[in-house]
C-alpha cells in the first residue's frame, strides 16, 4: 500500500473522478476505495470497481452506440491504447494489451492507463458543454505552498499531502573519479554537437528529476 500511495497519479485520478463525477457519470468513491481496488487487482482476484471505472471513462471516447461495461471493456481499452500510444510515433509506447490481458498487468501499468484515460476523456468534444456549469476555481489545482528549499507541497482529495522536489545531481565527487566523469561528458557533448543542435526543450539537466513523496 505504501508504494501505491507514493504514486502521484493515484490522487490525481481520485481528484479527477470526484471533480467530474456528475459530468461524466462516474462512480462516487473515496481515494481509499481506489487504493484498495488496486491492491486487490495485484493479486489473484480482479477488481470489479476498477473494471467499472474503466468502462465509464471509455464510454466518453466512443459513440453512444457502444455498450461498454465492466464485462467487455478490455477490447475497447486495447483499441484506445493502440491509437493513443502504439500509433503515436512521438510517444513510442506499446499497446500493453496486445499480448497481455488486463488482469496480468502490473499495478503501476494499470494506474498509468487509468490516469491516461482521465486525460483523454478531457479531449472529447462534449467536454466544453459539461464545463459550462462548473466554476472556474473548482477546475484549478494550486499547490498548498513551498518551503525554504523551494519544495512544493500538494494537497489532494482532502486526505493526501505530497511533497514535490527536484532531485539534483551529486556535486560532491572528488579526485580522479570526478575528472574522468568531466572528460567523458565533454566527449559525449562533442559527439552530440555533430549530430544535432541543442534544443531549448533539452535545457534541463538530464540528471535532475521531479520526485513526489507521500507524507
The percentage of residues in β strands lies in 5-15%
**Could you say which overall geometry the principal axes of the C-alpha atoms support?**
globular
Biggest sheet features: 4 strands, antiparallel
Indicate the radius of gyration in whole angstroms: 21 Å
Query: Could you state the order of secondary-structure elements as H and E?
Result: HHHHHHHEEEHE
InterPro entries: CECR2, DDT_dom, WHIM1_dom
Pfam families: DDT, WHIM1
Subcellular location: Nucleus
Biased composition (Basic residues): 176-198
What this model shows, in words?
This protein has 215 residues and is of the alpha+beta class. Helices cover 43% and strands 10% of the residues. The protein contains eight helices and four strands, in the order αααααααβββαβ. The chain has helices spanning 2-5, 9-19, 31-41, 48-59, 73-86, 107-121, 127-131, 175-195; strands at 145-146, 152-156, 160-167, 209-214. A hairpin with a 3-residue loop joins β2 and β3. The longest helix is centred in the last third of the chain and has 21 residues, at 175-195.
